[in-house]
Amino acid sequence: MDDGGDPIGELVRMLVRLPGVGEKSARRIAFHVLGAPPEFARALGQSVATLAERVRRCATCGVYTSRAVCTLCDDPRRARDVLCVVARPMDVDAIERTRAFAGRYHVLHCLLDPLGGVGPAEFPLEALIDRIRGEGVREVILATPPTVEGEATSLYLAESLRGLGVAVSRIASGVPHGGDLEFTDPITLGRALEGRRSL
Ligand code: ZN
């Protein structure tokens, strides 16, 4: 007998693979979708399925955008000569929420992690150096996370950018060790930015 499988269990197993979603939340979401009008489930599925096609990395700074140039790079009010270097696009959102920074961003999309396959040879250093030279950047703020890889990346960048004539600083601690910028409250993260120190 074909019982049609276990569609609810199947969705729950997919949902628990998402960050921050446990078994209980996954079941709530699955039953909510079942109870909602069918158009909602279709729109949700469509939105998820086409996300990667509709969003790309800004060719200049690397944040996710649906435009050729992102709104941050396109904003003439933002200082061109101050660059904040972060590991992930979501770190840009976290810093934007502090309203403590009005320069531009550079997203690495990785951290220096030789054991994880990202050594100096794989690290995208050239793109950052090209931007610094090409856009007349005078100050670089290193906002990689306060983890082992984040600190290693920060030190590596500070060394690598020496001699380029830019002031290099690191955001101050105040964000929890081993934590994610994404989960740090805006006040703490704002203070960390203001209290950055040069390296
Ligand atoms: Zn951009």
Give descriptors for this structure:
199 residues; 5-stranded mixed beta sheet; 8 helices; elongated; binds zinc ion
Describe the 3D structure:
It is built from eight helices and seven strands, in the order αααββαβαβαβαβαβ. Helix 5 links the parallel strand 3 (82-86) and strand 4 (104-107). Helix 1 crosses helix 2 and helix 5 packs across helix 8 (186-194). The mean pLDDT is 92. The protein has helices spanning 7-15, 23-35, 38-54, 71-74, 89-98, 125-134, 148-161, 186-194; strands spanning 56-57, 64-65, 82-86, 104-107, 139-142, 167-170, 197-198. 43% of the residues lie in helices and 12% in strands. A five-stranded mixed sheet has the order 4-3-5-6-7. The chain has 199 residues and is of the alpha/beta class. The structure holds zinc ion. Zinc ion is lined by residues 58, 60-61, 63, 70, 72-73.
Layout of SSEs?
Layout: H1 7-15, H2 23-35, H3 38-54, E1 56-57, E2 64-65, H4 71-74, E3 82-86, H5 89-98, E4 104-107, H6 125-134, E5 139-142, H7 148-161, E6 167-170, H8 186-194, E7 197-198
Parallel strand pairs: 3-4, 3-5, 5-6
Antiparallel strand pairs: 1-2, 6-7
Helix pairs in contact: 1-2, 5-8
Radius of gyration from the alpha-carbon trace, in angstroms: 20 Å
Give the low-confidence spans. none
Major pleated sheet: 5 strands, mixed
Mean pLDDT: 92
Major sheet strand order? 4-3-5-6-7
Secondary structure tally, helices: 8
